[in-house]
Amino acid sequence: MQTTNSTAPRPTRPVRSGILTLLAILLGIVLAAALVGLVLLSVTGWLRSPDETASAQTSSVSVGSDVTSDEPPQTGPLTEADGLIPAGTDITAGADLPAVTRLDPALRAAVEAATAEATLDDQPLYVTTGWRSARYQGQLYDEALATYGSEEDARQFVATPETSTHVTGRAVDIGPLDAMYWLLEHGPDYGLCQTYANEIWHFELATTPGGTCPEMLPDASHLGG
Ligand SMILES: [Zn+2]
To answer: Which structural domain range is residue 93 located in?
Structure first.
């Protein structure tokens, strides 16, 4: 029974050493590939940092925001995360609410500076609306559409989420009425201008500090840019 095995030449040794050599070669190739991979990884890692890493983190951030995790939910009732200002609350540009923290930083700084001067003039100046989420603006527009019946009429009073400067953080509505008149007079010192003739409360950064404000547009449906 064992005759075949015992009489036949045993080719195991040369075969085994051949396999071992092959394995050694394969192992060498795998190790070399891993080494090349590591080198490539560290080189690309170098190339990416720090600028690319930083821009990758900030690319989805909207104007005036330095946090991405605070994006408002797309369903449910509107909250402060949408830029809602709780009813009966008088907030200033310095408040810690998304309505003002998500404003364009230059606009927010200008309104804060103007508020400080207004306070010295014994004139309270509050932000009644600042930044708004697109969903918030969309609801306001839908309400205007229901009230005025046509898109043409609704757009004279409420901009769409696509055109609203509140959604981009580049507009504030202020109050009370006396503060609107105060800012109409003193706003240009800070670059702040009333931009729509039919919205005495609506201000944007529209000139250089101390400059002259551009001519007002009749209403929000006439977007100059
Ligand atoms: Zn406004």
So the answer is: 80-205
